[in-house]
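Example 4.3 (complexes with small molecules)
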Amino acid sequence: MTGGERVEDRALLGGRGRFIDDLPAPPRTLHAAILRSPHAHAQLGSISAPDGVRLFTGPEIAAGLRPFIAALRAPMRHFPVATDKARYVGEPVAVVLAEDRYRAEDALELVEVEYEPLPAVVSPSAAIAEGAPLLHEAAGTNLANRRRFSYGDPEGAFAAADRRFAIEVSYPRSAVTPIECFGLIAAWDPDADAFEVTAPFQGPFALHPVMAAALGVPANRLRLRTPPDSGGSFGIKQGLAPYIVLMAAIARLAGRPVKWIEDRLEHLTAAGSATNRETRLEAAVMSDGRVTALRYTQLEDCGAYIKAPEPATLYRMHGAMTGAYDIPNLEVENSIAVTNKTPSGLNRGFGGPQVYFALERLMHRIADGLGLDRLEVLRRNLVREMPHRTASGALYDSGDFGAVVDLARTAIDELRARRAAARAEGRLYGVGLAAAVEPTVSNMGYITTVLEHEDRLAGGLKNGALAAATVAIDPHGGVTVTGDSIPQGQGHRTVLAEVVAGVFGLAPADIRVVTEFDSARDAWSIAAGNYSCRFAPAVAGTAWRAARTLRGRLARLAAARLDLPLEDIRFEGGMVGAGPGREVPFARLAGLAHWSPGTLPQGVEPALRATEFWTPPELGPPDAEDRINGSAAYGFIFDACGVEVDADTGRVRIDRYVTAHDAGRLLHRPMADGQVRGSLSNAVGAALFEAFVYDGAGQPLAGTFADYPPPTACETPDPEILHLESPSPFTPLGAKGIGEGNTMSAPACIANAVADALGVDDLELPLTPARVAALIP
Amino acid sequence: MPRMTVNGEAVDAAAEPRLLLSDFLRHTLGLTGTHVGCEHGVCGACTVLIDGRPARSCLALAVQCEGAEVVTVEGLEEGVLHAAFRRHFALQCGFCTAGILMSLTAFLRETPRPTEREVREVLSGHLCRCTGYTPIVAAALDAADA
Ligand code: FES
Ligand code: FES
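Answer. The structure with FE2/S2 (inorganic) cluster bound is encoded below.
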C-alpha cells in the first residue's frame, strides 16, 4: 500500500480538467436538443415544425436503426426514441438541431406533436394485475419474466423451523446523480460508413456491440472514445448508450457532427435510476436465532423498457441472496414488470440495496421477535469457513467476517451507552446494525440466470470477465500504462502508476497513465468499463501482470548483459541488476531493447509493450441447477450507527456512523476511504432524502435538485472507517472492490436505527421528516 | 458587449442579452474550469467571484456583469487551499471542485479561523456526490490553520 497524492488533482484544481463539454467540437458541429414526451403513456400522432427547423422525428430516426438487443427475448421493441407510443415522461420523441444550444432549445418550442394520452400504470404490482393497461401490446402482458429457484431444501427447513418471520418492503427508486450530466459528440464518416462518438460512457462494453447492432454497423465501425475526465457516474453514465445511438443516427441523417449536452431536468426525469422493487422475505428460524432458510418473492420494476444490461439489477446478487450468512436453504421467485416510468439501469450498489434492505431489516426483527441480542443473532449466522459456497452458487473467497464485526464492538458498546443516556432524557435515539457482502468483478454470465437452462444452452453459456491492460516502455525508459476501465473520479492514474512503478523499481512519477479510452485502439473486451468495482481487483491486477511480463523480458536482457544469473536480477531505484557495480540503469536497458533488438539474447521477445488479458477462472456460467457465482471476489462490510430523531419535526440526525470493511488488500488507503465516504453519503441520500416519486398518472415529481435533494455537508456524517485486509486468493493483487459496499449496507443500517429509535416495525425509505413524524408514537 | 475583467484581464466579447455568465465564461471565453451541474442555482458547481463575492454564474447573465471584476477557478493562485485539497483527497471527479474553491476562497478571506460548523454551512451551498464532504471540510480547516 502506498497512498500518495493523486496525480489527477493539480489539473482538476486548476480548472484544467477536460470534461466532455470542455472539448472542442469538430467544424460544422450542430447542437441537439431533445423533445421529450410530457405524457407517461400516449399514442403518438403527427410531429411537425415550421420550415427552417431541423427536425428529426422518432419514426424518421428509427427507420435507420434496429431495435436494441435485450437479454430477455420479450417482444418489447426498444429504440432510443419513441416511434409509435411514448411510454414514460421524458422519453425522446424527436430531436432538433441548430447552430447552438440556445437556438436548438428555441426550435424545440416550435415543434408540434399530437399525443393521444393513454392510461398509465406506475406501480409494478398494478402493472401485472389483471386488466392493467399494456405498455407493449405485442407482449400481451406487463410481466416480462418470472422465474422460480430453489436451492437445498427450503420446504423441509421451513417445516422444521421453530419460528417464521416475514417482512414486506417496497424499495423506492433513487439514483446517485453525478454532478456532471450526460453529454456527447457524435460524427459520421460517409466514406467508411463509420461512426465516431466521444462520450463519458463508463461501460460495460458489452453494450458496445449492442449499440453497433442498433446502428446496423459492425462493431469496428463504431469508434467510441472517452474524454480525459468525467464528472462522476456511479453507474448512471451507462445510460448514455441509447443517446450514443440516437445522436450517431442523427449525425448520419444530418451529415454533420452533433453535440448534445443533457440538462439537469432531463437527467432527473430520463437518465435512469436504480430499480424500485417490492419484496416479501420470509425466514425459517430456530429458537437460538439460527436462520435455516430464506424465501424471497421479488417484483422488480424496470420501467418502460428492459434496457440492456437489465434485468441485471435483479440478478447481480442472485448468488449472494443469503448475504453475509451461512443459510443452506433458499427459495427465490423473481418477477420483472414494465411500468410507465423511466427505464432503470446501473447505479452504485446495483441490486445490493434492494436485497440488503429486506434482509437486514428482517434480521433485526428476528432478534427482536426472539428476544435475543441483535448483534448476537447477526454474529451467530455469519459465514465462518472460507472459501464458502452459498446455496445459490456464489463462492465467497476470503475473510473472517466475525473478526470484522469485532472491530466495531467497542463502538457498539459506546453507541448503546449513548442510547441509554439519550433515552434517560426522553429523547428518541436508536442503534442500527447491518452486515453485507459486497460482490466485485461481475461474471458476464450472471444475467443469463434469468433464462431457463435450455435457453442458456441454446444461446451458448456465458461466463468470465475479461480485463485488459497494456504497459509499454519507450527508448528512454519512460513507462506508459493503459487499462480497460474508464475513471469517473476514482484516481485510476494514481493507482496504476503506483502499482506499475513498484514492479519496475521506479518512482510513480516515472509512469504515465493514459485513461482516455478509444475502442479503436485500446485492448478491451465486453467486460471493459468502470463498474462492479472491477478496477482494483481486475484492471490494476492485469496492469501488474503486464508489467511483470515486461519485467521478465528486461530481467533476461540484464542477466545476459551483466553476465549474472537471472535469479539475482533486482529492480530498485531505477537500476536493474545485483547492486552497485553489477547493474545498469533501467532507461539504458530499455534503450538497448529498442536500439539493438538484433543483439537480444535468444528467446527474449524484443517488444517492450505487453498487453495482458485476465479472467478469473472461478467465474463459470450458471449451472443446470441455476447456481451462479456472480462475482470474482466478495468483500465484507459491517456497519453500526446511532441516530437521533427529533420528536417535533421527525428529522433524523445521524449521530455516529462506524463502518468496518474487509476489501482484501487495499491498494491506496486514502482513496479506499474516499470510496467508503462517498458511497456512505450516497446511501444517506437514499435513506433519508432522495426518491424519484411519480404521481398516479406517471408524472415525475422531481425535476430539480430542490425536489430531489442529495445530502449536503450538513447532513452527511463523518464515518469512522475500520479495515481488515484478507487478500483475495482469486485476484492478482489480492484486492477486492470497496466502492459500493456502503450504498448496500447503509440504507438498512440507518433504517434499523430509526426503527429502534421509534420502536416501529415497518419503515419505508426515504425517511423524510414528514414520514418519520407520522410514525412517532 | 459587456465590459468586465475576468481574472484581471479586460474582456471585450459580444454576448447576446440572454447569454448566461456560465456559458459566456465557458464557451465564449473558453474558461472551461467553471462547471455547470444544474443551471438552477442549487449545485454550486458554477460558482465564481463577482467583485469578490461568490455568485452562481448559471443564475447571472453575462450582460449583468458590465463593469464587474469576475474571478474564475483559473484565476486563483495555486496556494495553501489547493495543497490542502491534494493532501486530504478532497476531490474525486473534480466536477464540483471549482465552485467549492471559489466559495472557500471568499469565505476564508472573511473568516480566517472558522469552526467546522461554519465550514459545513458554507459547503452546504455545494453538492458533491463523490467525497462525502469530510475531506473537503478537513482541507478547508487545514488551509485556515496554515
Ligand atoms: S450550475 Fe449553477 S448552481 Fe448548479
Ligand atoms: S468530487 Fe465529484 S462531485 Fe465532488
